[in-house]
């Protein structure tokens, strides 16, 4: 969806932008929990991405109940899961809690 979060928008000198963007992306990655879809975190200057991190999706083993036999059942379950994840990626939203914002800007 690529929705920018206005609460995380701020101004910094150009020479510190890359360093600070990387640091904030890493802190957000550490504080935002995993979802059933991949979450991309990006720091941008203008329209240019200067730092990026990805939070991987949690895996759900849909083939755990399939033992041996015909592989088409397993393939059908994996295809159905792939369609659901695609739909979830379009609709899914990530909510960032208030304590996450505080921990991002807290100085170490």
UniProtKB/TrEMBL annotation:
The cross-references to Pfam families, in alphabetical order and at most eight, read: LepA_C
| One GO biological process term | positive regulation of translation
One cellular-component annotation, GO: mitochondrion
Query: Which Gene Ontology molecular function entries are recorded, alphabetically?
Result: GTP binding; hydrolase activity; mitochondrial ribosome binding
Residues forming the GTP-binding protein LepA C-terminal domain are 3-106
Q: Which family does it belong to?
A: Belongs to the TRAFAC class translation factor GTPase superfamily. Classic translation factor GTPase family. LepA subfamily.
Q: Which PANTHER family match?
A: TRANSLATION FACTOR GUF1, MITOCHONDRIAL, TRANSLATION FACTOR GUF1-RELATED
- The protein's name is GTP-binding protein LepA C-terminal domain-containing protein
Q: Which organism is it from?
A: Paramecium sonneborni
For this protein's source organism, the top of the classification is:
Eukaryota, Sar, Alveolata, Ciliophora, Intramacronucleata
